[in-house]
Specification:
CATH superfamily of the domain at 8-158 and 325-360: Periplasmic binding protein-like II
Oligomer: single chain
CATH class of the domain at 8-158 and 325-360: Alpha Beta
Radius of gyration: 23 Å
Distance between the termini: 30 Å
Number of helices: 18
Helix content: 40-55%
CATH architecture of the domain at 8-158 and 325-360: 3-Layer(aba) Sandwich
Number of strands: 15
Length: about 500
């Protein structure tokens, strides 16, 4: 979710025309005669999956189940689910919208840019009507989706303070003979990694260092504002994120571990996610953040494994309350043919357990089944994670209300951590560090030209640094100089003025 929209320079040229389209569409939306009933309209949801994309046939079964439910409950519109690869979503969706492709619900991975380019409708006319349930649920989290006082998206509702863990092949690590009780934080992973490397010289020990920036943000209480800026602990003074101590430490660690052979030699060219590398046996482990406990994380990885391993997990840190990279913002594009129906559908995903769980787990009887007491769901006989037709379980919490999801167990005899997990998530959110700027989202419209130039620089340097491809002592100063030349301080000045106004208004 750190990906930026490609071709921002092109999009910036279209800002005026697209904003005009968005404005007129918003006006039409507020006075449309096609009320929430939809008048037979089909709402198109542009969705994704963090594992294999379900087939068209399997997805059609999910659509049928949801549409029958909608009709049964008096809604005169249907849902169409269109999947886009997670690797392509951040670039292909904005480009599609720039071509006026019709869509009704999208994941706004870069909200400020999508708003400045006019791709999203203002949702305030719907918040107390079609979107009231979702709006009430997320409460003040909705501030993260507001720009200049206007609301452009609904954030997912989930355990927002994540638990950072090292997840590992238990048999292999146990064979090392290392006392895992000594692992208490990130620094204490280093002796463990050295011991694993000594026994398995050719093994990858941590699949993906791209998560280190988010990890070190949590460790340093460095709160990121969008992609390019951040504030230190308890501060409201912006700095260039890539000049922060948290980012420097993340890059240094990525490079150190790459040189030691702990991380994949493919670095930024690797096309597989960390979870895939671990569950297929390509890597012994990975540093990752999940909202659940150690026990439930182990159970999830054991359910997903395709190569027979069993996993362990050791918590190394608790995350702060984050928005960038953790809250997923879902909005209605200016190309929607019926924003009222789209808003109603969006609200149902957040408030109706059947619709959300069908989106996540698929069709009852085909993709999942209830136990005799209707307490949890599991795979039907003969079905598992490798052959289930439709399952987006790795999208848990990315759309809708995570606390509405069914209790899922891979098998009847699998341990059940559902209640334990929900308690864990709620307690962590109560105690996690929360920046004074939690809820602030900048308006990029006045600096779109500079942002386009900054985005090009970012794409040139960022991945190489966080994957340890290059020495940060050499490349980070070069990166910072290029950002300066691209006009990043102009953007910082503009955003700081917005921050000051936002702080004053939100005292």
């Amino acid at each position: 979710m750190k990906s930026k929209i490609a071709s921002l320079a092109l999009c910036a040229l279209m800002t005026v025309s697209m904003a005009g389209c968005g404005s007129s569409a918003a006006t039409a939306a507020s006075s449309t005669s096609s009320a929430a009933s939809g008048d037979g309209y089909t709402v198109k949801l542009l969705y994704s999956n963090l594992s294999a994309t379900p087939s068209d046939e399997a997805t059609a079964g999910v659509e049928d189940a949801i549409n029958q439910y909608l009709a049964k409950n008096g809604y005169n519109f249907k849902l169409d689910i269109e999947f886009t690869s997670i690797a392509d979503y951040a670039t292909s969706i904005p480009l599609s919208l720039s071509s006026q492709t019709e869509a009704d619900i999208v994941w706004a991975m870069d909200l400020p840019s999508m708003v400045s380019n006019g791709y999203l409708l203002e949702l305030d006319p719907y918040l107390n009507k079609e979107l009231k349930g979702a709006s009430d649920l997320v409460g003040d989290w909705i501030k993260n989706c507001q720009i200049n006082g206007k609301t452009y998206a609904i954030p997912n509702y989930k355990g927002l303070s994540l638990s950072w863990k090292y997840i590992y092949n238990k048999d292999m690590v146990d064979a090392v003979g290392y006392d895992m009780s000594q692992v208490t934080d990130f620094e204490s992973l280093k002796p463990l990694f050295a011991a694993i490397k000594a026994k398995y010289p050719d093994a990858i020990i941590d699949a993906d260092s791209s998560r280190y920036p988010a990890l070190f943000n949590s460790l340093y209480h460095n709160y990121q504002i969008g992609t390019y800026f951040s504030v230190p602990e308890n501060s409201t003074s912006l700095e260039v994120y890539f000049n922060s101590e948290a980012f420097k430490k993340a890059c240094e660690t990525a490079y150190e571990f790459r040189q030691l052979g702990y991380t994949s030699p493919e670095g930024s060219t690797n096309t597989n996610g960390a979870d895939v590398l671990v569950t297929t046996g390509a890597s012994i482990g990975t540093v990752m953040a999940h909202s659940g406990t150690e026990d439930s994380t182990v159970a999830m990885f054991n359910n997903l494994v395709t190569s027979g391993e069993k996993f362990g997990a050791k918590q190394i840190a608790l995350g702060q309350m984050e928005s960038t990279g953790y809250l997923a913002d879902w909005g209605i594009p200016y190309t929607s043919g019926n924003p009222s129906a789209a808003a109603t559908m969006l609200n149902l995903i957040w408030t109706d357990p059947f619709i959300q769980n069908t989106l996540e787990y698929g069709v009852e009887g085909r993709d999942y089944t209830w136990d005799a007491d209707h307490k949890y769901i599991t795979y039907p006989d003969g079905v598992n994670s490798s052959n289930v037709q439709y399952n987006t379980i790795l999208m848990s919490g990315i759309i809708g209300n995570e606390f509405n999801l069914y209790d899922f167990k891979a098998s009847a005899d699998a341990p059940d951590y559902y209640d334990q997990d929900n308690t864990f998530k709620q307690e962590n959110m109560k105690t996690a560090y929360k920046s004074p700027l939690f809820g602030f989202t900048p308006d990029a419209s006045k600096v779109s030209t500079q942002i386009a130039a900054i985005s090009n620089v970012y794409n040139q340097y960022y991945k190489a640094l966080i994957y340890g491809d290059v020495n940060p002592d050499e490349k980070l100063p070069e990166f910072l100089k290029a950002l300066d030349q691209a006009g990043i301080n102009d953007v910082l000045t503009e955003y700081q003025s917005q921050v000051d106004a936002w702080v004053k208004a939100n005292k």
